[in-house]
Amino acid sequence: MIKVDNQISVRMVLLLLVGGLTIYVTLRDPELGIAIGVGVVVVTLLHQLLGK
Question: Quick one: average pLDDT of 14-27?
Answer without folding.
Answer: 81
